[in-house]
Amino acid sequence: MNLRFGAIMTLILSAVAIRLAMSGIPNVSPITALALFSGAYLADRKLAMLVPVVAMLLGDLVLGLHNIMFFTYGAFILIALVGIFISSRLCGHIVIAASLGSSVLFFLVTNFGVWMVSGFYPMTPEGLLTCYTAAIPFFQMTLMGDLFFVGILFGLFMMLEHFLPAIRRPASQSM
Asked: Could you give the CA distance from residue 45 to residue 101 in angstroms, rounded to a whole number?
C-alpha cells in the first residue's frame, strides 16, 4: 500500500468513526464529505462509490436501519460521482460549490424517499412539496455540517500533500 492511499484511507476511516461518535447530533454527519472526498481522491471509481455506502451501512448496523436507506445510499453514490467529476480541477471554489450542490442533492433525494415510503404525505405533487417544505428547517444543520466536514477532509489532505510531497499524485497520473 502506498503512502497516498494510506493517507486517504486514514481520513476515510476517521470520517466513519466521527459519524458514529456524532450520531446524537441530528442532520450533521461527515458522510457527504466522505462521498465527495472519495470520489475526488480515490483512483478506483468503484471503490469511491462503495466507500460512502459501506460507511453508512456500518453506521446503520450500529445506529439502526431505516426505511429510506436505498435513497440515502443512492444519494451518496451520486455525491461520489460529483467528486469524480471535480477530481481533475480541485480548488477551493470548486470544492465549496460541489459541497453545496451535494447538500442540495442529498436533501432532494432523501426527502423524495421520505415522501415515497413514509406514508406521512399524500402521493401527490402537493404532498411532495409539503415534504420538502417540512424538511427545510433541518437543511441548515445539514448544510453547515457538510461544509465543515468537506473543509476538514479536503483541507487536511491538501495540507498533507503540501507538507508530505511523497503523497502527492504524480503529475502524469490521470484521474
From this structure: 20
